Amino acid sequence: MNKKLIYPALLVIACFVVGFVILKDKNKEDKIPPIKERSARLASLPDWAETKTKATDLYTRIQQQPTDEKLKLQLAALYIQEARVTGDHLYYDRAAMQLVDKTLKADSANFEALCFKSMIYLSEHHFADGLTYAQKAQSINPYNSFVYGLMTDAYVELGDYPAAVSTTDKMVSIRPDLRSYSRVSYLREIHGDYPGAIEAMKMAVSAGYPGAEETEWARIQLGHLYENTGMRKEAQREYELALYERPDYAYAYAGLGRIAESNKYYKGAIANFEKADGLVEDYSFKDELIDLYLLNGEKEKSEQAAKKVLDKLNSDAQAGTNDAAIGHYSDRELAYVYVKTGDYAKALEHAEMEYNRRPDNIDANETLAWVHYKKGDYKEAAKYIAVALKTNSQNPTLLTHAALIYQKAGDTAKAAELSEKASKDNAYISPVLAVEASKELPRKGA
Questions:
Q1: Percent of the chain with pLDDT over 70
Q2: What values do phi and psi take at 151, rounded to 5?
Q3: What residues make up the domain containing 219?
């Protein structure tokens, strides 16, 4: 056959194949991921039937009216909420981002879409990106309360605490509600004002509708505040009330698990955390179980839990590598789990990655300090823990970490001062950390 005829023919075939692949990829891109079935226990909650029906209806209408941006944003909002309920952020954040990006492609100044994009980035710990889109939204509508909440969250995570206070003040002045009160509470907490934080979180709970996910989330935060000030009966009451108002609420089970743990009732603590872990995809439940299994003499189960956490967090991190727009930055979490497994080299690698993304954040500095402490680099640890203490946070875990670090770094007076603050009012710290503190730190009056 004439080669002059063969090559054009092959070229036509190649173009057809490439065109088919592009069309196939475009169709895949255009296809919106549908809502997923919940686990049996989550599916039994009263909101599931309504959520599923609404999602299916929106999905169908979008297929019929692909240029209706309002429908897309309604479905995106539902997916963002479903991510909170189920913990399946990777699936729902990707689905929501796809809808939001379609809207922004049609209208780059769509205020609601910009807010949603910021929310998704913040959920995935892409804090700088989250701030960028929140600021874009704020420039379009500077009188909207919600956008200042997004900016507050981003400023907190990036360590710009004065800016966070300023945007929260603006948010409350526009609309005092659950969302603004809860942010006031957190800022008071990290600045060492626990009474003020408790007061604001009570206001947040009162401003919400009982049983709604965001209301019970606020109630759980109130319980945490009570735990951190040694008010365990009050904390337990809030967790039990959250379960009453929202049955099978995973974070309420986790709260009750910590109460049981603080009472050294490890079997009960394990049962509660296993319930929570069976309901929601949240690494923190398995992370707690690593310690609890060990405390209960179940070393093999502890090691299995650690492996599951590392596999999950690394999988999410890989998703972020594959898709820069979506993927959970989880280096802080990975650092702590690697510390528990004794892999300090890996722990340092991830702690430094987290620190490099947000060097002014107190949590990132505490993580890096703790890894250096575990490695025996006490002077380095002291350098970073000093930054972690800059807001005057009275968090008992932070104070205990700091006390241990300063003790090893040779500043015994500072260590004693921080240790006394940490143990004030019998505030909650994990039993594993408490054991280490009892061995390394001088007892009061000794």
A1: 90
A2: -65, -40
A3: 176-278
